[in-house]
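This section describes the prediction task in plain terms. A model, or a person checking by hand, is given the sequence of a single protein chain and must write out its three-dimensional structure as a string of tokens. No templates, partner chains or ligands are provided. The sample shown here is typical of the held-out split.
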Amino acid sequence: MNKKIGKNKRAILFLLVVFHLAVAIAQEPRDKIPVKANIKDNYTYTVKKLKKAIKIDGNWNKAQWRTVDSIELTNYMGQVPIFRPTVHAKMMYDDENLYVIFLVKDRYVSCTTQDYNGPVYKDACVEFFFSPDTSFPKRYFNLEINCGGTPLMGYNAKKVDVQHIKEIEIAHSLPQIVNTVITEPVTWTIEYRIPLAMLEKYSNVTHPKHGVIWDANFYKIAEKGYNPHYITWSFVNSVKPNFHLPQFFGKIKFQ
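The expected answer:
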């Protein structure tokens, strides 16, 4: 009987060791997870021209977007999070506007910022930085919109006037406020239309047309909460997370 008890104890001890080893492996520092990050990659996105304006409703699957190629945001800055969101974006233009849509497959989502030009980057948020004046590619707009549709916008490190930001039409699939963190998988979209005339209140704009190329980057961020992360489309060569580095913007080429 004592021999049986001894064997059982040894078996239990073995299982405990295996269990703790598995936990240790699972908790290995997350920055060791392989992440696509090649500064030599050529990040260029071709932007199609629309024949006529579209309805801004946050519908990723509507007819006008179906024939448009998407980009995927796969480069991480800082520590890689426990859960890695899947983020795609698409863009189009017409003679008067830019159109952008994001599709995010996410978890641990919250959204509490309601004020224009507030800290939306603390929430689940998508961002588009772009330089519309090809003569000065380091001068850029940053448009940051949380999953509830609240925007922050700047140009050359200065905030854009709220009344001008309101000229941007924005659609969002989640409620404006998400106080209770959504821990389960959730898919959300942000779609918007930026009038070129609004941009011209702050910058010269090299108007989109066939062959014109702007510098730009697309981002996903959630600075606070259970799953903080910083994701980029065009790779940013910086140890410290910082999206405001236009020297690492990719290219958007208008078709």
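For orientation: The mean pLDDT is 88.
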